[in-house]
Amino acid sequence: MTATHPLSAAPARSHWLAVSAVAFGTFLLVTAEQLPIGLLAPVGSALSVSEGAAGLMVTVPSVVAAVAAPVVPVLVGRLDRRLLLVALMALMTLANAASALAPSYPLLIAARVLVGVAIGGFWAVAGGLAVRLVPAAHVPRATAIIFGGVGAANVFGVPVGTLIGGLASWRIAFGALGALALAVLFTLLAVLPPLTAARPVSLGRLGGRLRDRGVRVGIVATFLIVTGHFTAYTFIGPVLRDLSGLDERLVGPLLFGFGVAGVAGNFVAGAAVAKRLHRTVLAIAAALALTMLAYPVVGLTRAGGVTLLVVWGLVYGGVSTSLQTWMIKAAPHAVEEASALWVAVFNLSIGLGALAGGAVVETLPLQGILWLAGALFLVAGLAVWGARRNASLR
């Protein structure tokens, strides 16, 4: 990648401490977004709502993040991105403190709205920061580190937070997240260099990015892959139990293994996209499709189910890094705008995937979610294949 980001020239030296701090920020954000999954029962019991209603603690921030991702960069104009990231982490600190102290369910949901704003705004900016923090040759590795926080949240953040909620209380779990957010805030202040925006993001420029075919393909591929993943992954527990015949007590450890494989896949993809971006994204879509379509046949045994789960985690772990790199290369002069669109679609697809999976499970056999996910991955692969002649994406 030889083009420079419009917000700053290519950095003369690397800021790997800043890259690591931003990675810890993404770890915290994803943990905050998904932590309620493990706390639905205690929250519902404490605030006298059903587990289904408590599930809005996950849905609401995802939808809000999808809106905030393009809106926050537009609203802040030329504001130094260093100050923006710090302000968003301050908002995350406040939101988690409010969640821990919420006396009623409506106030808890209001706090989760603030979490969504912080997630969408922070991720939209952080996704494109690699080009501003390290020289061009190191951008894929720095991007992989930043998105390593996503996989680490699934492996460590959510399980540990759930454990804290079980041993102490769900309020302590949210309070601990607030304390970590405060620590990240001070770390970002200490290690991030000034990141002044030379050109503000505008709604017109955001729309203009969609006229670029490479950006459009990246958006479509993201929508299909993430929707497909969460269509199936939302119901991975029943799949492992009812199709593969695994004991329900093994689901937790197996999902931990899924997360570990995902962390490894993130860094494998980071190395691969530095050499062959298009082929890497195409291989990810194809491998996910094969895994999903093979599961109703090969995954009907315990060994087959476990093997395909690990493969699934390894391959999906490379999705964030590879698709973010795709957006950077598709719009090298408008990284922040392309990243904002990408984050919006990514978060919206999480919610849509869960909804689609739920609708299929209600009307079709459990295998239906695997067939649907496989079909979405196949269409994503076809969309990526169509961009094979784009020289900037090779």
What's the topology here?
Elements lengths: L15 H19 L5 H8 L3 H4 L1 H21 L4 H21 L3 H22 L3 H4 L5 H29 L2 H22 L11 H7 L3 H21 L2 H8 L7 H23 L3 H22 L3 H15 L2 H12 L4 H29 L3 H19 L9
Helix pairs in contact: 1-6, 1-8, 1-9, 4-6, 4-17, 5-6, 5-9, 6-17, 8-9, 8-13, 8-16, 11-16, 11-17, 11-18, 13-15, 13-16, 14-15, 14-16, 14-18, 16-17
Can you offer a commentary on this structure?
By secondary structure, the chain is mainly alpha-helical. The protein folds into 2 domains: 16-191, MFS general substrate transporter like domains (Growth Hormone, Chain: A); 207-393, Up-down Bundle (Growth Hormone, Chain: A), CATH 1.20.1250. The protein is built from 18 helices and no strands. Helix 8 (139-167) packs antiparallel against helix 9 (170-191), helix 8 runs antiparallel to helix 13 (251-273) and helix 11 runs parallel beside helix 17. Mean pLDDT is 86; it is low at 1-9. The chain crosses the membrane at residues 56-76, 83-103, 109-131, 143-164, 170-193, 214-236, 256-274, 281-300, 306-328, 340-360, 366-387.
CATH architectural arrangement of the largest domain: Up-down Bundle
Radius of gyration (CA) equals 20 Å
Q: Percent helix among the residues?
A: over 70%
Extended strand count: 0
Helix and strand content put the structural class at mainly alpha
Compute the number of structural domains.
2
Q: Give the name of the CATH superfamily of the largest domain.
A: MFS general substrate transporter like domains
Kindly report the CATH topology of the largest domain. Answer: Growth Hormone, Chain: A
Main pleated sheet:
none
Query: Could you report the average pLDDT, rounded to the nearest whole number?
Result: 86
Q: Uncertain runs with pLDDT below 50, 5 residues or more?
A: 1-9
Return the CATH class of the largest domain. Answer: Mainly Alpha
Tell me what portion of residues adopts beta-strand conformation: under 5%
Distance between the termini: 11 Å
Q: Characterize the overall form.
A: globular
